Backbone:
């Protein structure tokens, strides 16, 4: 399985050097990648059908518990097939859609990156590797949404999507690590066996809360749903692939994957049902008022995702069966509708539903695909959507007493919205009179209409022969989510019962809504006037406040004045050290223990004080620099007297070079003018005296600390034995703590590069702002 | 700052200081010294030369940009760190030749590590000083 994840990653890297080749006729090689992967996963079906799981283990960072553990069960296989199968269609489609685009190679590199990351998410059996891939899908999605990078809206939408999903990822990481700490394992299949420990742990609500934020942001649940309509700025193949069929379902996948380990508790069920139920109803209503085809699809996708969350929240066996079938139902018809929208946009250059009509006459095969998908979305008997809808109603009707009516009502209302939305996208642009301007439109190359047509036909085939999917893998999907045997068996006909009546009345009402509700820009404006109370407004508002706070903080702490940095650093050090000194109690100085002063020590201190006096009083920069170096040399002498020749030597050379450096810089400065006010002088003097006093106190304190020489003894004894050196200081530097030295050297190198590039930087006039 | 005395003196001081810096580098394992101090002394030698003859003249006798010493030094140090891996030992294990070599003394990976530090220090100091000195 590892190879299926790595293939895309490696090839997407290869597209950097070989991008220009792939822009030519060799681009036909690109769709072959998902085809091969799709075939690989098709061949896994027989094993999964029997209920076996395929496992693979590759050690990565064993010391941290991060390993590449992969597991293929029913749920993973469903997603892997969606990713590679719909991916195949999308790759063929996008190759034509973006033909001749200057970033053609880049687009496919992102798309391959996404495909690998998404496969990684659904195959990972280790929660940390799952997280890595999870973030990778957010990142690749960011690049794809912002693909038209010369468009400001695109860039903004990309940043919104990344912020929201990135924020969710952050919470998810916290939740996953917490879960790992509670159970002591990072293997997902092991977590299931620790279910009792997890759900009875006092941190359980926190764990699932954090995971929910991760899942809700990714799967566009209220109140994080608004990034998804914005993400429609991406090229349509991306919307069809990432933002309807695969990536947005990663959150659903996460919930489904952890249902056996964490699910079916009161917290879990109630939260998911409320959030999912609210999201689906709200989005279904929103969808009816949009005029942009992709916006309609975006909201109906949110509604479908809400439905899946809702079903997982119910958590009954029937609800899980319904969810596992509905994932596939939705992916098939939604990807089709998106691709159809892409064709319309590509040919007519508009997606405005109020302007489009009659296209069925010129784009016949596209119309057929759209119609079939719309019917499946509406749940007409003999389509796959019908079976999905049946299962949903069955699940809601068989829920606990008292609640079943309400749940059913929400589900019906949502479905009515979905029926109408599906018809608006799948039928409305194709019927009615054909405007003059569109009469010249020709059918695009078959690679743009075959993929949606195949998916649409599958929606019908699975509808007529539901046992194909039901017996071969939906059964195992439901088993994987429920963690127990579900006895799923799909049938096309359940007889005349409440479910059928509900289903047909949904269809009828939905059709009526479609016929009488005409989306228009006026209605859209009305809906958008309510934006001030929307979640989007609140959350982006919080985001803006963060930016304001960040700017304020940066202005205060990073204002670019060296003196201000010095001031703050020293002040903070004084406060911390002073506090520590204060709580450590009084200092006793025993003058009898001190060695008597010698004349040369007095002499050095006199030189120090003299130099200090000159620095403070002089009006010349050069004099003060030279005086500073006098202080440095005086300290050197102290080192020599107290037998630290290594230190003295280093200090001496460093001091010399620093003075040279100072002189070089000062040489270029304008004449000295004193702009410092008296108040600032006093302030700085107090700060400096305080710092000196604290350091002196610490030095005195150290004298009375118990003298532990363990470390010194260790190095003294082992320097020659282990490292064959007699100079302990140097042995520590190059051997015992050599890695430290190595990185300090790197830091030196970086600072030199910094100085070099800052001074040598010559901006072109066009780059100056 | 052209002074005939300084110019004449640096002609002799440069090689002597450089030799001294190598001496410091090599004795570092047994007596005070080491790559860092050695590198600083070597840089001072060049700085002195540049004071006497101008930075351009010093750049000329250096032949290569001091910046290029940085990657060479880092590379040398990094090689000495990963060299033991080739023998299946953990990185940074100190490996030493059995017999001392005349003049230089004991040869081991630590010496090369110190040599790397020595080169990086020269590269860093000269890069910073010369960049600032040459800036118009």
Residues:
């Amino acid at each position: 399985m590892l190879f299926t994840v790595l293939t895309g990653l490696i090839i997407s890297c290869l597209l950097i050097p070989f991008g220009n080749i792939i822009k030519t006729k060799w681009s036909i090689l690109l769709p072959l990648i998902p085809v091969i992967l799709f075939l690989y996963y098709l061949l896994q079906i027989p094993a999964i059908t029997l209920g076996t799981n395929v496992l693979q283990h590759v050690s990565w960072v064993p010391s941290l518990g991060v390993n590449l553990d992969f597991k293929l069960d029913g749920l993973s296989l469903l997603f892997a097939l969606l990713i590679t199968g719909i991916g195949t269609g999308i790759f063929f489609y996008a190759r034509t859609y973006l033909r001749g685009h200057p970033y053609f190679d880049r687009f496919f590199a992102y798309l391959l990156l996404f495909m690998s990351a998404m496969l990684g998410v659904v195959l990972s059996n280790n929660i940390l590797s799952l997280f890595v891939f999870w973030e990778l899908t957010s990142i690749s999605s960011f690049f794809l949404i912002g693909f038209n990078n010369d468009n400001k809206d695109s860039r903004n939408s990309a940043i919104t999507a990344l912020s929201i999903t990135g924020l969710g990822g952050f919470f998810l990481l916290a939740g996953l690590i917490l879960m790992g700490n509670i159970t002591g394992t990072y293997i997902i299949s092991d977590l299931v066996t620790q279910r009792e420990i997890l759900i009875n742990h006092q941190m359980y609500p926190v764990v699932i809360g954090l995971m929910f934020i991760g899942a809700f942001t990714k799967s566009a649940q209220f109140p994080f749903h608004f990034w998804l309509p914005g993400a429609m700025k991406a090229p349509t193949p991306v919307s069809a692939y990432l933002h309807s069929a695969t990536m947005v379902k990663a959150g659903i996948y996460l919930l489904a994957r952890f249902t056996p380990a964490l699910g079916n508790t009161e917290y879990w069920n109630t939260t998911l049902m409320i959030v999912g139920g609210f999201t689906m109803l709200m989005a279904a209503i929103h969808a009816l008022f949009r005029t942009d085809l992709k916006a309609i699809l975006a909201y109906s996708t949110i509604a479908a995702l809400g439905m899946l969350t809702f079903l997982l929240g119910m958590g009954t066996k029937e609800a899980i069966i319904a969810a596992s079938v509905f994932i596939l139902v939705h992916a098939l018809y939604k990807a089709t509708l998106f691709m159809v929208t892409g064709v319309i946009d590509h040919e007519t250059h508009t997606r405005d539903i109020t302007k489009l009509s009659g296209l069925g006459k010129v784009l016949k095969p596209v119309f057929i695909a759209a119609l079939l998908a719309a019917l499946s979305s509406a749940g007409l008997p003999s389509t796959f959507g019908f079976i999905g809808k049946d299962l949903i109603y069955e699940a809601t009707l068989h829920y606990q007493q008292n609640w079943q009516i309400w749940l059913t009502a929400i589900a019906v209302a949502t479905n009515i919205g979905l029926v109408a939305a599906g018809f608006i996208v799948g039928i409305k642009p194709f019927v009615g009179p054909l405007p003059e301007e569109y009469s010249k439109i020709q059918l695009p190359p078959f690679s743009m209409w075959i993929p949606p047509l195949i998916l649409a036909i599958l929606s019908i085939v699975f509808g007529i022969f539901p046992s194909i999917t039901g017996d071969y893998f939906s059964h195992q999907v439901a088993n994987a989510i429920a963690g127990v045997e579900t006895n799923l068996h799909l049938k096309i006909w359940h007889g005349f019962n409440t479910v059928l009546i509900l289903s047909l009345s949904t269809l009828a009402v939905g059709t009526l809504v479609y016929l009488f509700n005409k989306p228009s820009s006026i209605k859209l404006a009305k809906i958008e006037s309510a934006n001030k109370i929307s979640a989007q407004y609140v959350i982006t508002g919080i985001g803006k406040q963060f930016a304001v706070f960040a700017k304020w903080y940066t202005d205060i702490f990073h204002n670019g004045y060296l003196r201000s940095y010095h001031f703050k650093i020293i002040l903070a050090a004084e406060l911390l050290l002073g506090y520590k000194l204060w709580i450590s109690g009084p200092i006793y100085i025993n003058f009898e223990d001190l060695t008597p002063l010698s004349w040369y020590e007095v002499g050095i201190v006199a030189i120090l004080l003299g130099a200090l006096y000159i620095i403070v009083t002089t009006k010349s920069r050069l004099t003060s620099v030279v005086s500073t170096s006098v202080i440095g040399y005086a300290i050197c002498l102290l080192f020599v007297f107290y037998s630290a020749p290594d230190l003295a030597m280093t200090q001496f050379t460093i001091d010399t070079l620093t003075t040279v450096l100072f002189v070089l810089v000062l040489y270029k400065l304008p004449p000295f003018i004193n702009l410092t006010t008296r108040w600032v002088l006093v302030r700085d003097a107090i700060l400096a005296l305080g710092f000196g006093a604290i350091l002196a106190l610490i030095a005195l304190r150290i004298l009375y600390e118990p003298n532990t020489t363990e470390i010194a003894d260790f190095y003294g004894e082992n320097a020659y034995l282990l490292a064959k050196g007699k100079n302990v200081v140097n042995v520590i530097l190059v051997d015992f703590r050599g890695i430290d030295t190595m990185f300090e050297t790197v830091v030196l190198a970086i600072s030199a590069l910094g100085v070099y590039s800052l001074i040598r930087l010559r901006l072109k006039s066009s780059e100056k702002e | 700052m052209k002074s005939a005395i300084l110019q004449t003196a640096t002609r002799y001081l440069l090689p002597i200081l450089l030799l001294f810096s190598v001496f410091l580098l090599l004795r570092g394992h047994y007596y005070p010294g080491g790559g860092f101090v050695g590198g600083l002394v070597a840089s001072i030698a060049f700085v002195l030369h540049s004071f006497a003859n101008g930075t351009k003249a010093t750049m000329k006798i250096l032949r290569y940009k001091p910046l290029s010493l940085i990657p060479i030094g880092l590379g040398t140090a990094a090689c000495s760190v990963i060299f033991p891996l080739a023998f299946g030992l953990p990185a940074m294990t100190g490996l030493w030749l059995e017999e001392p070599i005349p003049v230089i003394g004991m040869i081991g990976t630590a010496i090369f590590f110190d040599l790397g530090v020595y080169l990086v220090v020269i590269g860093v100091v000269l890069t910073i000083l010369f960049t600032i000195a040459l800036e118009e």
